[in-house]
TrEMBL record:
Gene3D superfamilies according to UniProt: Metalloproteases ('zincins'), catalytic domain (3.30.2010.10)
Upper lineage: Bacteria, Bacillati, Actinomycetota, Actinomycetes, Pseudonocardiales
InterPro entries: Beta-lactam_resp_regulator, Peptidase_M48
Biological source species: Prauserella marina
Cofactor(s) the protein requires to work: Zn(2+)
The protein's name in its UniProt record: Peptidase family M48
Keyword Metal-binding set for record: no
């Protein structure tokens, strides 16, 4: 039971940090720091939830989780119904999460591959992007091993040269910083529980923070105002319709991003951030080590 207690404590620590992130106002000023905490907290919650279920179920063996799982086929008769149910729930949850992540990655990769093929047919290469001859104003990054930055003829017409440069810098930031890998685990979870309001809130928060990271990089290269006015034009023009698996310049909480670019919040780096990092990393380390260390 000590093992279960440790796993539950790790899950609680990660949940407290996640709640703090959801309620904090500094996250928009320091999106990268917030994303680091989100990723560690999310991983900790998953590992410790599976660990708590397996820890309770395999407690009669008195061993670490992995050695106990190896023993399971030979000693399964020693477990009563409650412990067996808990082991089945733990293994089921782990399998469900892993399978869902893999399926989500596969379907996203297929959608991107289809879109890449389509681009070969309809887009023409320009100096820093592929141009699609379409009147709708669209710009997006199609991530992958060879990322593609795509901009429509409508967007080129809509934006000034400075604004277009800022938009392309935003999309290049997505590609360079591999933002699709940051959002992928959370999007896969949302696919698993599409009506879960808490998960919807967390996913939209992560997506917004990713957009803000790309905004910051673009603003450092091209200035804040060209990107803010480009976003404003996209928004006023009703831009949207990003293909599946792509990261667009203007799909997420545009008003908040414009406001942030024009009036940067005066939030200093939160002094509690290093402490929160230590808490979730300790929780994750404890939770993961309990899989191997015998108690
Ligand atoms: Zn973007």
């Amino acid at each position: 039971m000590i093992l279960v207690g440790h796993q539950l404590a790790a899950a609680m620590a990660a949940a407290i940090v996640a709640l703090w992130l959801l309620r904090s106002r500094w996250t928009h000023a320091h999106p990268r720091a917030a994303l680091i905490l989100w990723q560690i907290s999310g991983l900790t919650l998953v590992v410790s939830s599976v660990g708590a279920l397996l820890g309770f179920g395999l407690a009669p063996f008195g061993r670490g989780l992995l050695p106990a799982l190896v023993d399971l086929p030979l000693r399964i008769h020693e477990l009563d119904l409650w412990h067996l149910t808990s082991v089945a729930a733990g293994l089921g949850l782990a399998g469900w999460l892993i399978a869902n992540q893999l399926l989500s990655l596969r379907s996203t990769a297929r959608a991107r591959a289809r879109h890449r093929l389509l681009l070969q047919l309809v887009a023409r290469p320009d100096t820093d992007a592929l141009v699609v001859d379409h009147p709708a104003a669209v710009a997006y990054c199609l991530p992958g091993r060879t990322p593609r930055i795509v901009v429509s003829a409508g967007a080129r017409q809509l934006l000034t040269a400075e604004e277009l440069g800022a938009v392309l810098a935003h999309e290049q930031a997505h590609a360079r910083e591999r933002h699709h890998l940051v959002v992928a685990p959370f999007q896969a979870l949302r696919r698993l529980l599409p009506r879960n309001k808490a998960l919807i809130k967390v996913c939209s928060t992560i997506e917004l923070l990713v957009e803000m990271c790309a905004d910051d990089r673009a603003a450092r290269q091209r200035g804040r105002e060209p990107l803010a006015s480009a976003l404003e034009r996209f928004h006023a023009n009703g831009a949207g319709g990003t293909p599946a698996g792509a990261l667009a310049v203007s799909d997420t909480a545009v008003q908040a991003r414009i406001r942030r670019l024009r009036e940067p919040a005066a939030f200093g780096f939160p002094p509690a951030w290093p402490l929160a990092c230590v808490v979730v990393l300790t929780a994750l380390g404890t939770s993961a080590s309990l899989f191997a260390v015998p108690l």
